[in-house]
Amino acid sequence: MAEPRSPLGKAFVAGDHGNHAAGIGVTLRERKNLSIIQITAWADSIPAVLTAIGSATGLVLQNKPGLGRVAGEKSVFGFAPGRYFVVSATPDLETRLRSAISAELGTMVDLTHGRTVIRIGGPRSEWVISKLFAIDFSEHAFPVAYGRATLHHDIHTNIQRIDDETFDLYVFRTFARSFWLTLGHAAEEVGYRVE
Amino acid sequence: MIIRCPYCGPRDVIEFTYQGDATRRRPDPASSDQDAWNSYIYDRTNPGGSHREFWLHGGGCRQHLVITRDMTTHAISSVAFARSIVAGESS
């Protein structure tokens, strides 16, 4: 089996960057070796699909806009009515979901090859990504584990809040290097660490 | 302009695309009434006040919405999923 390669290439430079003399404002890293599955439930099958996701992943969700769950490397979140990202480091995630979600309940698309997941954490993470996305990142508007679909310069991005100062950014793989560089520029003023 | 999407919450208008007048009624497809079809395709009332419109939240949940907007002030008085209105759940 071919070894997956990061699309970040030479743009990924580990170490401290920008104005880090006074401390590190954010830490950036790429989450690798994940399975990323998008599930769409038919309009009348949303509760059944949520039950199936719960049985396949152990992450049980209610039908509520943007609601998500995070448990270690596993996560799930809604980003549109009846639409969910299910993410896991488990290679057989697609197989398990496919056995739980029949065509009568909804559809599945494996986006593993098409998305790059960048995790940004640290005390200035809200500040940095607020430069790029026109949504409210404060915790009362964007609670832990919730997901969002939004735009960065007209390019679609999915975001999940992992904890009070950590976010996972799902960007198109073909756009990931450019986005990574933009994110680095946005983080320069607060100092950032790539690991 | 901020549009309060029923799923995503308040979002900037850059995430949305205007999709036209939501007050039009398509004539019977079997009809050959040219005036009715001409009116459906070309005639717009362009009111100065409240107006129902289709919008697409392409930069978010990708749902079609029906929005009631004041054409003079841009104040938005209602936003709903288009499919729920078609299904008769709200108006």
TrEMBL record, chain A:
Domain of life: Bacteria
Name of the molecule in the record: Sarcosine oxidase subunit gamma
Pfam families, per database record: SoxG (PF04268)
InterPro entries recorded: SoxG, TrmE/GcvT-like
From TrEMBL, chain B:
One Pfam family named in its UniProt record: SoxD
Swiss-Prot/TrEMBL GO biological process terms: tetrahydrofolate metabolic process
Gene3D superfamilies attached to this UniProt entry: Folate-binding superfamily
Sequence intervals crossing the membrane: none
InterPro entries: SoxD, SoxD_sf
Signal peptide: none
Single annotated GO MF: sarcosine oxidase activity
Name of protein: Sarcosine oxidase subunit delta
Organism from which the protein derives: Phyllobacterium endophyticum
